[in-house]
Design brief:
The structure holds two protein chains of two kinds. Chain A is mainly β. Helices cover 0% and strands 54% of the residues of chain A. In chain B, the strands form three sheets. Chain B has a seven-stranded mixed sheet with strand order 3-2-1-4-5-7-6. Chain B has a six-stranded mixed sheet with strand order 10-11-9-8-12-13, covered by helices on one side. Classes of the chains: A mainly beta, B alpha/beta.
Chain lengths: 199, 379
């Protein structure tokens, strides 16, 4: 059990590496690391692994590591606050809470959010020692397709995919061939994959 | 207690490996141990099945075998003698998912004055995954240990493939001396003039779908000598009514002969692959060695209950290219003329295998890549 910090954060619960998500904070050798990006991999007979991009909250160093997917970590439960995205003040992204307090988030802590960022977007800010260190999106978001090639006639199975650019970021994802410009689509924010077309 | 090795160049490396079901993983680590000693390092081969270790020892030239210290790996917890051995180790290699339990990890972490370098050696991987993971660090969440990944694969940036330094040159030399091949084959079989036969090796899993192959082969008029290793390949044949003893068995009604062979030293089996026209291989080690042999081969990947091996085989097939007679993940002879077609296209297939070998020969050699990761872990 971790008992080292006097910062008022509440600890803790154990999580396997494969359960970690962006914004989670884990303890590695008693130092807190925020997960900037996580990617699950499995190949043939090899161990399932999680590639994690981690930022050390003590010194700011960023590292890319690989853990066995079932490696257990003590995670730190940090304060969270519902906010909305307000504006970009280079190089910081500014969010605001219900009481109009503003919080600046560094770009490197926004990697998972940038593909979907739009003015007024709701998100949950994660704080460590009073400083926002991560942004958590809802499990899915709905965005409008800005551009995609017209569908080739004859294939309506939904298995054939094509690239589509979404508003307002221009982020590109794969969508089924039947999706058209102007359609609204639901996107999984964890996998960055198309989920469905929204009426 | 022996002090930790201090030389910058010579390292003492502990290779840990477990016997899962076959000899494959042990065989790869044994050859890796030999490769490391050939590069001037001291190796402790720590295995959980000492009888299996004796098996490899008995099939390795004495002057080479005695360079490797064999240790019984008590997987549940290290003994005092194990801890004494660990004191002299520069690096530990956790091979092929054998896994250190907490007691072993604690022993490594408590090694005085510093823990040894720790490398996780993975199975052969396909695609970019190998390069993406190879060399990455994995700090232990609680103990003062950091593992580093070593991932063999078919892409630059991975740990490459196991290969002996002179393997390709020796093989080319071998191919240019049919007389030497004939003489060597005579040591393996009492069959008269084995060099005049079409030669096939059959190293398959016990449930290999052999029925259509046997049906087609029985109709082939070209005399074929089939080399069958002990164990599962013979079980596969027995399922189809072919029961082999110790001697060559004529196949009634055909011009073919079955030649049962004993367990061979890995380097001897390599030579058999080089000396055959077609090799059916399986798993990883014989699969890689068949690629160095640059002879047409069929491959059964190691089976997994989650069917991952199908994806594995498909990934290899896509990278290997060519018109390979392998469907799904097993050599497939369900079409009536597959066997005969195979020999019609043999020369083309042979050229493709040679070109493929040239391509993968540019990849790193696994033993060198492992030493690179050890050096990285020791920094």
């Amino acid at each position: 059990m971790f008992v080292g910090w006097p910062y008022g954060v509440s600890t803790s619960m154990m999580k396997q590496a494969q359960e970690l998500r962006n914004g989670n904070v884990v303890l590695i050798k008693d130092e807190p690391f925020v997960v900037l990006k996580g990617e699950y991999n499995k190949s043939g007979r090899n161990a399932a692994v999680m590639k994690l991009k981690l930022k050390n909250l003590f010194n700011g160093n960023i590292s890319e590591t690989v853990f066995k997917a079932d490696e257990k970590f003590e995670t730190v439960i940090l304060e969270r606050k519902a906010c909305t995205y307000s504006y970009f003040a280079d190089p910081m992204y500014v969010f605001m809470d219900e009481e109009f307090n503003q919080y600046e988030v560094e770009k490197e802590n926004m990697e998972n959010v940038l593909p979907f960022l739009e003015d007024g977007m709701s998100a949950e800010l994660v704080f460590y020692q009073g400083k926002p260190i991560g942004v958590e999106l809802p499990p899915s978001v709905i965005r409008e397709v800005e551009y995609t090639e017209p569908a080739v006639r004859g294939d309506t199975s939904g298995k054939v995919m094509k690239p589509a650019r979404i508003k307002p970021t221009g982020f590109e994802i794969q969508v089924p061939a039947f999706v058209e410009i102007g359609d609204k689509i639901e996107i999984d924010t964890a996998t960055l994959e198309y989920k469905r077309r929204v009426q | 207690m022996t002090p930790p090795a201090s030389s910058q160049t010579t390292k003492t490396i502990a290779l840990f490996c477990a016997r899962i079901d076959h000899w494959g993983d042990l065989g790869v680590t044994w050859r890796l141990a030999l490769a490391l000693t050939a590069r001037g390092h001291q190796v402790l081969w720590w295995v959980d099945d000492p009888a299996a270790a004796d098996h490899f020892l008995a099939h390795t030239p004495r002057h080479l075998a005695k360079q490797i210290a064999i240790r019984h790996w008590h997987r549940n917890a290290p003994t005092n003698a194990d801890r004494d051995q660990l004191a002299a180790v520069d690096a530990v290699v956790e091979a092929f998912g054998c896994g250190f339990c907490n007691a072993w990890l604690t022993a490594l972490a408590e090694r005085h004055p510093t823990p040894p370098a720790w490398v996780v050696l993975e199975h052969l991987a396909f695609g970019d995954w190998a390069a993406a993971v190879h060399g990455r660090a994995s700090p232990h969440p609680r103990l003062p240990l950091t593992a580093y990944w070593c991932v063999p694969g078919f892409v630059p940036g991975s740990a490459g493939l196991p290969r002996e330094p002179e393997e390709i040159a020796e093989l080319d030399e071998w191919a240019n001396h049919p007389h030497a091949v004939a003489t060597w084959l005579a040591t393996l079989t009492p069959v008269t003039a084995p060099e005049r036969y079409r030669r096939v090796t059959l190293f398959c899993y016990p449930d290999a779908p052999l029925a259509p192959l046997l049906t087609q082969l029985a109709c082939d008029p070209t005399p074929t000598l089939l080399f069958v290793p002990p164990g599962e390949p013979r079980q596969a044949l027995a399922r189809h009514g072919v029961v082999l003893g110790d001697r060559p068995n004529p196949w009634p009604g055909t011009p073919h002969l079955w030649q049962p062979i004993p367990f061979l030293a890995p380097s001897t089996y390599d030579r058999l692959l080089w000396s055959s026209h077609l090799n059916w291989v399986r798993g990883e080690d014989s699969f890689v060695r068949a690629q160095w042999a640059a002879r047409p081969f069929l491959w059964s990947p190691y089976r997994r209950s989650d069917d991952d091996h199908q994806e594995f085989a498909a990934a290899f097939r896509a990278q290997f290219g060519g018109n390979w007679p392998l469907a799904d993940c097993e050599p497939n002879f369900t079409k009536p003329d597959t066997w005969l077609d195979l020999w019609t296209t043999h020369a083309h297939w042979q050229n493709h295998c040679s070109a493929w070998r040239t391509q993968v020969a540019h990849l790193p050699v696994l033993a060198d890549a492992l030493l690179g990761v050890i050096a990285q872990a020791m920094r």
